[in-house]
Amino acid sequence: MLYYKRGRLLAVCVLCWSCSVRVVTAIQRADMFPYGSLSGDMILAEGDDETSRVLSLPRPVYFYDSLFSQLYVATNGIVSAQDLPMEKQYVDDGFPTDFPVVAPFLADIDTSGGRGQIYYRVTETPSVLNRVEVHRGFPDAKFTPTHVVVATWENVAAYEEPTRTSGPSNKFNTFQAVIGYDEVDSYVLFLYPEGGLNFFGTRPKESYNVEIELPARVGFSRGEVTYLIFSRTEGPHYSVTSDEQSVKNLYQVGNTGIPGVWLFHTGNRYSFDNIVPASVGAKGCFLLQDEEDDYPLTGGDAEFQPAPASDHSEAPQPASPDAPSSPSEDVPHGSQPSNRQYAPPNPPEASQCCYAALNMFFFAFSFCPRFQQQCSQNAFCSDYATGYCCHCRPGFYGNGRHCLPEGAPQRVSGKVSGTVTVGSTPVDLNNIDLHAYIVVGDGRAYTAISEVPEPVGWALMPVAPIGELFGWLFALELPNSQAGFKITGAEFTRRAEVIFYPGNQRLSIIQTGRGLDDHNHLTVDTVLSGSVPFLPPGAEVTMDPFKETYQYYPSVATSTSVREYSVVSADRGSESFSFQLKQNITYRDCRHDSSTTALETLQITMERVFVMYVKEERILRYAITNKISPVGVEPTGPELVNPCYAGTHDCDTTAQCIPQEGQAFRCQCATGYRGDGRNCYDIDECAEGLSTCGAHAQCMNLPGSHRCQCQSGFEFGFDGRTCVDVDECSSSPCHVDARCINGLGSFQCQCQAGFYGDGFYCSQQEVRPKSHCEQHRDSLQSGGDGRPSVGAFIPQCDSDGRYRLLQCHGSTGHCWCVDSRGQERAGTRTPPGTAPKDCDRPGEMKTHRQKHTYFMEKKSDCLMKYLNEPERPKTHCEHYRDSVQTTSPEGYPITGAYVPQCDANGQYIPLQCHGSTGHCWCVDTRGQERAGTRTPPGTATKDCDRPERPKTHCEHHRDSVETTGPEGYPIVGAYVPQCDANGQYRSLQCHGSSGHCWCVDSRGQERAGTRTPPGTAPKDCDKPERPKTQCEQHRDSVQTTSPEGYPLFGAFVPQCDPNGQYSAQQCHSSTGHCWCVDGRGEERAGTRTTAGIPPVNCDESVPVVPTQRLESVCERWRSSLIEHYGGKPEPQQYLPQCEPDGQFSPVQCYGETTYCWCVDQDGREVPGTRSHDVVKPACLPSAAPPTVRPLPRPDVTPPTNADITLLYAQGQKIGALPLNGTRLDATRAKTLLTLHGSIVVGIAYDCRENRVYWTDLSARTINRASMAPGAEPEILINTNLVSPEGLAVDVKRRLIFWVDSNPDMIESANLDGSGRRTLFDTDLVNPRAIIVVSSSGTLFWTDWNREAPKIESSSVDGQNRRVVVSDGVGLPNALTFDSSSGQVCWADAGTKRLECVSPDGSGRRVIHSSLNYPFSMVYYRNHFYYTDWRRDGVIVVSKESSQFTDEYLPDQRSHLYGIAIATSQCLSGEISVLLFTF
């Protein structure tokens, strides 16, 4: 049955004398592309001759072979690429026009008085892009639209002179033009719904009372084009209609197989002569599915899904007295156009067809017998009600059109081209090579781009999205997910745009999957265009792991994300940047299998991202580890992750890891491999008779699979499996005076009677014309004296002009046999000094390609001279050998190239030797080198007849490197592991290029502390290994960050002595700075020297001048950038901001902009702090200011006679500010506790024991002290703290709670520091303030994540976590609890508001709306007390009046942090629980 998606049966027409099936129902209005204001359309003004405002295109469109970046929509049924002249200059004329025109219905249309509407838009919406599907009419098109222009004329009327009619006409037309395009092609759809055309022409305005009507023009015109610089002439044009009847037929027929739908190819970037119409179906037969694409057979085709309800759904549907009375009439398909004119024929008479009633006849159709060849040879085809789908066979994966063996590693090759502007310098990339290698078993994807020019090589390091495509295609799949290749197969288009911040540079990435090559390698071409930020040479780029969510729609997957990366360079130090990535991946899907569940979203996790540019080799590398899973799926802990999902299994790279219960797993060799799963080896399906190749086909083994290749003279038939004879005669290979006779796998050329020759050259002369051999020979004897060019091969011909069977090269001494066309016969070449082959022997008469048999014809009869025996097909070895030997035009083998040696049967000789290098090795039947058999020149070769043992892990590792080069060489500069005779790792490994050596364990893992530089004696690897020292751990943590084992460029690598201790003198290899260190590796003050200055003697004491200090890193970086900017930085350029003591200011900004972020003491960006708002982020210093001497004692001096005291943190001290009622008593303010070298941030008070608690950001500790005079501080917690900020005391439960904003955690402990516990470590970005309501046992905290700030709550034991408020929040720094109202209150430095809300999220109210920069807050007796960074003081706000009532500004001006209330006794009601709000 054929159904519309709307559920209506389509009528079918069965021809009485044939089995043709005809769908005769035209499309309905609901089948048109969505239009109207609800679809985002613009509306053209009413009138008789209106033209739209310019419609600027996001990307230009090719129309014919010209590029246009803007369009205009006109009342009179046209779309133009130029602003239109007055209608009288074109509306009554035929084609061609003077200007570019797309004309779905060019006529004199008038929308005045509300008679219709005209809508238009350009869109990138996936649902619209997916409907522009051109493959039905253009099966070979490689087209996926990036943009679509939709223009709709709805219920428009013809112009009518007021004097000629008594009233407006009731005839209205509705039609649509859809222009889809990408960077190369454009296609146009014309849509005419059933009942949509009710007038078919219009009267000329100047008809002078002559009763004429001009039919509408439908078609295309290029407009005038320029020639001879200053002259212009008519451009090409194309007409669809010719008269009124052909206009009437527009909605009754179509060139797509669907009445009313017309498709045309309208432009191409490279070459385009004229419009090409679609051609679908056989003559006289319409099938909605009649080509190769997997699209529905229904009226609800993928191209024409019913439009959603919109503002045009209620449009009137006027009757048409002139419309045909039978809209379901069957109309046959017309012939192809000739000479720019396409006129569909008139409808046939009803007697030609036997019509079936709607509910009487249905048609069942089997698609797979016809379309099986569209599936992969490792797939099967399944029929469905609306079409067919391809499915990969068990053991293979893909989309059915392309299938790969499961578990096998995958290779990708392709080219990179385009122009990339670095800074202001454009750099061309001219088809440079890209190669990728993906270990599917654990999701590792390695991408290498070679021959990358240096400036763009450094600048492209952050553009890891180039390699991320391959990670997505072949990611490690977690349960309920699937990698991209299973969806896209090998043919897709990925379009990505990268926008860099803060420079706003834009880079376009277009990656096109071209299919699988002969070796099952994916071919992907990449085009880069746009600009990228400049990166200094030698820079190091690091990117943190991240997650990205992909949205899936029919035929497209999209994602948008923001990435951050760090750049470290000698000149600039550490910098942080970001970019936004927007991408879509379009592909062809199959929608007929309704049993499959459509994907909606999946999450890809990129756990490790490594980027590097190798200047010496000009190679850009990306290494990314990828996992794909449903969104939100996170393992609860590493111990619960099965090794298959974690990628930590030890299965072979050509094996699948199959998870079992718990931590158990099983290794199973990939499809096409056999072994124990730890070591797997390819199965040669060809040698073992396991191939599916049929007659006249040759089997070619591939890793994990095989390929069938038709023998010479044959090609694959309709089913894509069977080899059928090629009819060479169809290409007219013979002379014009000869006849061609096709044979099985060959053909013959015979001169006609009265002509003489070999069939390729025939003449009536008695003198024989030159033969092919003689012409070949004479063309090479091009010297003026008739002598050949020096060293050139000159073919030898016999007396009859034929090639001599034995040919020899006079210069090289090589000889070989040839066939009648002079083509070398496989396996017959002999080197100089050896006996040539007997070319007359029958066994050697089988030629490589027997396609021609020559005949000579005398005056009265034609005598056959000879007929060669049929040849055997070339073997894999012979193909390989001949591909090398025949690359030289003169017949030379390429100098230095390895030429494989084949035996008499064409099989690889077990022992292969390289003629130039002298190396020899054993090979298997596929010519693959057997591990451990290679011998250098001058040494005895291996016995290749001995049985081969399985490869070890070392040999697999070694061979995976050695076989990456096309000729079998290891990649230049790559590390190749060394294995012993038993295949085990040699205990001492050395890098051939770098000269480094090191010891390894049995798994090949480097042993710590054993690496030696070039020129030094290597370690004794047989000595037992001692534990790593702190220096060695520090050093190795840097060295092992690169997958290849190299230290990262630009990173400081500490130097350790032979005992593993820090060398007294340390130097940075990139910057040239040197300094002395103590036993812990800490720099000794005053010892640092810059590049070019002799380092100090670290064995002597170094005096430090008290009045001097060395220039800090921040100051050096700032000075170098000022010099880089020419001494005059622009306001928007970045300069590091340094404190007076030389430390980095906690807040860093780009010049005078508001693009700011927080940094730590080393200038590294604190993640999640970037702000584009007017308000800068609330950043905290992590280094204490310089110590001022003499140092005061760190003991407590409490205020006297104070019942209520505010305690505030101010850098290296805690201050006490007594209250007099609710007023601040500044006269009694004093320092409670001096803490030199500290940065006190969070502060809280325990009223039961009269103790103050605080966090120290500099020492990374949590501390407390009694409020008694002379009391000294004690440290409670000093481990595993990074950035402890907010602090709260639960007086009732005797607990402390704190937030650590660097690892983004909330923890708790007993008041003495014992019983430490993590409450939350997920879904936090920048937690800051925390409070506890002891009476209810509730925690509240703020998270000022710049992307999604919020306030959350939970119970004190970490249960019942929920978001209290997230809307309308900016920088919620301060948090407190109003015990009188039971509300949580916060002060926001972003919104400038002080607000309160009930714990359930209700009752939100604003207390004050114009704060300055609040940081911390506490509530007491209807007043809020908060520390303010703008005023550097304590500010008081009345809850009742919402007014500022008081302020306190300390004498020493610096930022104030936490604030708390200390009381002489615990209070009930108002402050029964003391809270810290930070």
Automatic annotation (TrEMBL):
It comes from the Eukaryota. Residues 1-26 form the signal peptide. Residues 315-329 have a biased composition (Low complexity). It is found in: Secreted, Extracellular space, Extracellular matrix, Basement membrane. GO terms for cellular component: basement membrane; extracellular space. Residues 408-638 form the Nidogen G2 beta-barrel domain. Residues 640-681, 682-724, 725-763 form the EGF-like domain. Residues 770-839, 874-944, 951-1021, 1028-1098, 1111-1179 form the Thyroglobulin type-1 domain. Disulfide bonds join C808-C815, C913-C920, C990-C997, C1067-C1074, C1149-C1156. Keywords: Basement membrane, Calcium, Cell adhesion, Disulfide bond, EGF-like domain, Extracellular matrix, Glycoprotein, Repeat, Secreted, Signal. One of its GO terms (molecular function) is calcium ion binding. One of its GO terms (biological process) is cell-matrix adhesion. CDD domains: EGF_CA (cd00054), nidG2 (cd00255), TY (cd00191). Residues 297-345, 824-845, 929-966, 1005-1042 are annotated as: Disordered. Residues 104-269 form the NIDO domain. Residues 942-961, 1019-1037 have a biased composition (Basic and acidic residues). Gene3D superfamilies: Green fluorescent protein, Laminin, Thyroglobulin type-1, TolB, C-terminal domain. LDL-receptor class B repeats lie at residues 1250-1293, 1294-1336, 1337-1381. The keyword Nucleotidyltransferase does not apply. This is Nidogen 2. It comes from Sparus aurata. The gene is NID2.
